[in-house]
């Protein structure tokens, strides 16, 4: 099927708009996740993020919003993206397996009271699932950002933000919007 370019762009933007309208009616999990992050940070804990591909980019983006600032000046907040240390990622993948790249870092760095945010559009990426399992075993709180199905992550998360789409890029668009809202709510609590 040969869809004219303008129609294709408009259809994609309208789909994004419909997705966000549906997501706006499902705000509860975002509020609960922000509460967990605020509680963890107030208790002296930190927020860890992990994900693959676009979700790796989201992980470092969101961690930087907390260690730096989102909109306002306030104390730095403890956050680490487990996606950015190329030496750790390559060594763990090479010596153990790619499935272990986040879980091993969680076991190295995670402490009870911390929060792990796992980001996956399918909810089934094995390294993110393994990281959530490791986090639960250590007593971390777990937050998921997934697509509508939730995948295997749904049952491993204290709260799972399941955005209303099954299309990877459309899901990612809502993930970063939800992530920004999390940062806004967390920042407000520390102003
Ligand atoms: O950004 C994109 C697609 O928009 C890709 O890089 C995407 O993140 C990768 O294919 C990931 O490996 C997908 O993994 P997941 O979201 O299912 O956990
Ligand atoms: Zn992408």
Topology (SSEs and partners):
Elements: H1 5-23, H2 28-42, E1 47-51, H3 54-67, E2 79-81, H4 86-95, H5 101-109, E3 115-119, H6 126-138, E4 141-146, E5 159-162, H7 168-189
Parallel strand pairs: 1-2, 1-3, 3-4, 4-5
Overview of this protein structure:
It catalyses: 2 D-sedoheptulose 7-phosphate = D-glycero-alpha-D-manno-heptose 7-phosphate + D-glycero-beta-D-manno-heptose 7-phosphate. Pfam families: SIS_2. One of its GO terms (cellular component) is cytoplasm. Belongs to the SIS family. GmhA subfamily. The protein is of the alpha/beta class and 191 residues long. The protein has a single domain, classed as Rossmann fold, CATH 3.40.50. Helix content is 53%, strand content 12%. It is built from 7 helices and 5 strands. A 5-stranded parallel beta sheet has the order 2-1-3-4-5, with helices on both faces. The mean pLDDT is 97. D-altro-hept-2-ulose 7-phosphate (I22) binds next to helix 3 and helix 7.
Short description:
Residues 37-191 form the SIS domain. The chain has helices at residues 5-23, 28-42, 54-67, 86-95, 101-109, 126-138, 168-189; strands at 47-51, 79-81, 115-119, 141-146, 159-162.
Main sheet summary: 5 strands, parallel
Average pLDDT for all residues: 97
| Uncertain stretches | none
Spatial strand arrangement across the major sheet: 2-1-3-4-5
CATH architecture: 3-Layer(aba) Sandwich
- Rg value: 17 Å
Ligands bound to this protein structure:
D-altro-hept-2-ulose 7-phosphate, zinc ion
Please name the fourth-level CATH homologous superfamily: Glucose-6-phosphate isomerase like protein, domain 1
Number of helices: 7
The structure class reads alpha/beta
- Note the overall shape: globular
Q: Which strand-content bin applies to the residues?
A: 5-15%
CATH class: Alpha Beta
Task: Sketch the topology as an H/E string, one letter per element.
Answer: HHEHEHHEHEEH
Question: Gap between N and C termini, in Å?
Answer: 52 Å
The tally of domains stands at 1
Query: What percent of residues adopt helix (DSSP H or I)?
Result: 40-55%
What's the total number of strands?
5
- According to CATH, the fold-level topology is Rossmann fold
Domain SIS: 37-191
Main location: cytoplasm
Organism: Azospirillum thermophilum
Binding site for substrate: 52-54, 65, 94-95, 120-122, 125, 172
